[in-house]
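User: Here's a chain of 344 residues. Predict its fold as tokens.
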Amino acid sequence: MKERLEALRTEALQELQGVANPQQLNDLRVKYLGKKGALTEILRGMGSLSAEERPIIGQVGNDVRASIESVINEKQETFLREETETRLREETIDVTLPGNELPTGAVHPLNKVVQEIEDIFVGLGYTVAEGPEVETDYYNFEALNLPKNHPARDMQDSFYITDEILMRTQTSPVQVRTMKAMNGKFPVKIICPGKVYRRDDDDATHSFQFNQIEGLVVGPNIRMSDLKGTLLQFVQLMFGKQAQIRLRPSFFPFTEPSAEVDVTCSQCGGQGCRMCKQTGWLEILGCGMVHPRVLEMGGYDPNEVTGFAFGMGVERIALLKYGIDDIRHFYTNDQRFLNQFGRM
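Assistant: Prediction complete.
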């Protein structure tokens, strides 16, 4: 039996030398060391041996098993090392190669215009104020010199939630809230950006929801000339040094006197074209001196301070700045339209 075990050792080690892959190695392990393997088959005959021979044959059997297992373990480590090296070689990443370019978003043109307007006025010493979009009738109308049943309310067809609560039709309520929060202190110098809501039919120039930015300045000796100078500075920073403005008399319940502001047409430079209907001017915003009644409602004495206010539609500014002919382009999420602004 000892000779059979030694012969088995020799045979197994020779076969193991020729193993080419892990599968062959596993097959040989089963063949020689498995429960039904050659070594087990030989050792089953130990029952016929004498008591003196069994320990000797048992020791030889263990030596044979250890020899075969040692070679198998070495082969396994070799195969694992080769597999690891192959994977490292095949999966190596060259960090010097250019990566896959991922599509990147861009700031929406309306947000871009809002940010630009905010930067301009912050540079002029203004602060940015915000307020709720769901507003009370008091702040949206009454505190702005528009008492109930005032005919000027018809100028802004509103979304009412209850008799006293509505979606704000302008950002002017933020001006009133700010004045009340200041508790009579001055100067007040703010702009109020935000969404507003009116019952308009959607078309090329109107929407039931749009963005507005209003401004308010309150303090001693604030004059109409200050308002005009501020708006001229804004227009030239927004549209270029060549831009000019003109003020036309108008009516707003919360300002007196009031004016509409036109800017020279960006398409023709004021010469007259189809866009400006041959006038050379485009309407851009409304403004005026704050009505004394509005100052009183905000907690100020109109005999001590004066103020001016202005309001503009962000979409209107964006249409003029980028030469866009339909406000609905801003809301349809057309990537062909929006991707243009990623390069600006």
